[in-house]
């Protein structure tokens, strides 16, 4: 620890905090308050060179460390008690190149800030549904979002990376290293910068559809019957849908976030008419708008800090059996304001990289996230009980519809079997890890082959 302190004394431009610092508690805080840990120190490097020097000192002195950016890992895994946190929140730059349709983005940029900057150039990129999530942390392990059916997941946007490796060296990731980064994230290094694809798009049709709150089960059934039928005909790639049940201003109801990502707004309006006909609507707040405006509304609705957890079930398809379970548990959802469940889909036809990625599966699948959170800790227990029984019943549905993989960022680490999750990609991750981080310096990365 002494050599780290000497290094920080010699590099006064690098901010850091120890448990004695007045801003320590604030800097440690993550999205889920009960998952906040007590690191030995938080260091906020400002350049790749800073990170390189830091990693060298940490590894030379056998000091355990973690990487933190947006702080939205639901299990607080960006920090470990007693370890040093490398806090990437100073890495916020966004450099846009409209000609090559690429951008270079800092390892700590927050999703909404990236969306805003891209919008100045009339460009977009897939991004998380919640705007306060770190973009790089989201993209590294999968990255599901409202634009994914058109442009792919977060992993599929990664064209290059500036990485600080296990030796503390700064390197432009070669194709082998990039393969691991696309799906296994920070297992081979700290990402100072990603080079990503971006896409020209100006206006979108976006907003929320709130269905009538009465007879929630029937509404969920009707909506999903229609969704299933429409998928058989083929949904347009430009149509992004995220269904959730929350405690909305009209009561506990099915809400569907709708994004039409194409300049053909007439076709978008026609799809909006279809989706709003799938069940009785209470409020249709979908309008021609921009992604920034849409994300700003989402930002104002999502709490900034919560207590609670997440339970996630992955299925191949929203079969009638799965929808039966959902429509049984939705009405039982506690009325606490922030509790919700939501559904991410990797739909048929979603574009993806054929090679150069270890992302676990390109077979269509669905992630049902059950989120028992609250700003009041005393309201969490009831919500957790509901989430557990909902989750258990989903796990008991037809095993043929349940894949061997799960979405690691939304799943607790305990009991995770990387070999089962990554299947044929597992040996690739292992080999790449052995090549770039044989001593497992990045022992706290989410993916551990
Ligand atoms: C409210 C909420 C909404 C979410 N919405 C979505 C969604 O719509 N779609 C989706 O797919 N996921 C979603 N997630 C999951 C989220 O994308 C992941 O948990 C993501 O890893 C969070 O990144 P972060 O930087 O905010 O979090 P952090 O906790 O700071 O980081 C999480 C992990 O990412 C790695 N990491 C982050 N930055 C770097 C870096 N620069 N270099 C190396 N490793 C790094 C580290 O291993 C770190 O432990 C959501 C999570 C929350 C809490």
From TrEMBL:
<keyword id="KW-0560">Oxidoreductase</keyword>
<keyword id="KW-0274">FAD</keyword>
<dbReference type="InterPro" id="IPR016166">
    <property type="entry name" value="FAD-bd_PCMH"/>
</dbReference>
<comment type="similarity">
    <text>Belongs to the oxygen-dependent FAD-linked oxidoreductase family.</text>
</comment>
<dbReference type="InterPro" id="IPR006094">
    <property type="entry name" value="Oxid_FAD_bind_N"/>
</dbReference>
<dbReference type="InterPro" id="IPR016169">
    <property type="entry name" value="FAD-bd_PCMH_sub2"/>
</dbReference>
<dbReference type="GO" id="GO:0071949">
    <property type="term" value="F:FAD binding"/>
</dbReference>
<dbReference type="InterPro" id="IPR016167">
    <property type="entry name" value="FAD-bd_PCMH_sub1"/>
</dbReference>
<dbReference type="InterPro" id="IPR036318">
    <property type="entry name" value="FAD-bd_PCMH-like_sf"/>
</dbReference>
<feature type="domain" description="FAD-binding PCMH-type">
    <location>
        <begin position="35"/>
        <end position="201"/>
    </location>
</feature>
<dbReference type="Pfam" id="PF01565">
    <property type="entry name" value="FAD_binding_4"/>
</dbReference>
<dbReference type="InterPro" id="IPR050416">
    <property type="entry name" value="FAD-linked_Oxidoreductase"/>
</dbReference>
<protein>
    <recommendedName>
        <fullName>FAD-binding PCMH-type domain-containing protein</fullName>
    </recommendedName>
</protein>
<keyword id="KW-0285">Flavoprotein</keyword>
<dbReference type="GO" id="GO:0016491">
    <property type="term" value="F:oxidoreductase activity"/>
</dbReference>
């Amino acid at each position: 620890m002494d050599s780290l302190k000497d290094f920080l004394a010699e590099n006064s431009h690098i901010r850091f905090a120890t448990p004695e610092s007045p801003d320590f508690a604030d800097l440690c805080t993550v999205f889920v308050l009960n998952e906040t840990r007590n690191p030995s120190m938080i260091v906020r490097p400002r350049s790749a060179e800073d990170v390189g020097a830091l990693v060298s000192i940490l590894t030379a002195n056998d000091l355990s460390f973690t990487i933190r950016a947006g702080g939205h890992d639901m299990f607080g895994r960006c920090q470990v008690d007693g370890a040093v946190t490398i806090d990437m929140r100073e890495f916020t730059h966004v450099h846009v190149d409209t000609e090559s349709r690429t951008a270079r983005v800092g390892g700590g940029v927050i999703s909404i800030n990236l969306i805003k900057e891209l919008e100045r150039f009339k460009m977009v990129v897939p991004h998380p549904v919640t705007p306060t999530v770190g973009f790089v942390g989201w993209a590294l392990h999968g990255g599901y979002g409202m634009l994914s059916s058109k442009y792919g997941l977060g992993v599929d946007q990664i064209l290059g990376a500036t990485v600080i490796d296990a030796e503390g060296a700064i390197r432009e990731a070669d194709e082998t290293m990039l393969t691991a980064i696309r799906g296994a994230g920070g297992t081979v290094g700290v990402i100072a910068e990603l080079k990503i694809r971006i896409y020209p798009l100006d206006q979108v049709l976006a907003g929320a559809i709130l269905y009538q709150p009465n007879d929630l089960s029937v509404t969920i059934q009707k909506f999903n019957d229609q969704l299933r039928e429409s998928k058989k005909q083929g949904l347009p790639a430009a149509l992004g849908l995220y269904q959730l049940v929350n405690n909305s201003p009209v009561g506990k109801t099915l809400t569907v976030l709708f994004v039409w990502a194409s300049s053909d707004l007439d076709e978008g309006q026609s799809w909006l008419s279809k989706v709003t006909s799938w069940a009785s609507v209470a409020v249709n707040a979908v309008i021609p708008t921009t992604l920034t405006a849409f994300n700003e509304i989402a930002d104002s609705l999502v709490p900034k800090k919560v207590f609670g957890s997440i339970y996630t079930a992955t299925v191949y398809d929203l079969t009638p059996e799965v929808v039966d379970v959902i429509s049984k548990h939705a009405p039982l959802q506690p009325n606490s304001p922030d509790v919700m469940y939501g559904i991410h889909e990797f739909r048929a036809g979603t574009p993806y990289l054929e090679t150069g990625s270890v992302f676990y599966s390109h077979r269509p699948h669905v992630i049902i996230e059950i989120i028992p959170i609250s700003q009041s800790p005393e309201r969490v227990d009831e919500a957790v009980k509901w989430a557990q029984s909902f989750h258990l019943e989903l796990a008991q549905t037809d095993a043929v519809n349940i894949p061997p993989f799960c979405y690691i960022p939304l799943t607790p680490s305990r009991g995770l079997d990387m070999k089962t999750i990554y299947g044929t990609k597992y040996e690739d991750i292992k080999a790449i890890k052995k090549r770039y981080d044989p001593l497992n310096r990045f022992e706290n990365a989410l993916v551990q082959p």
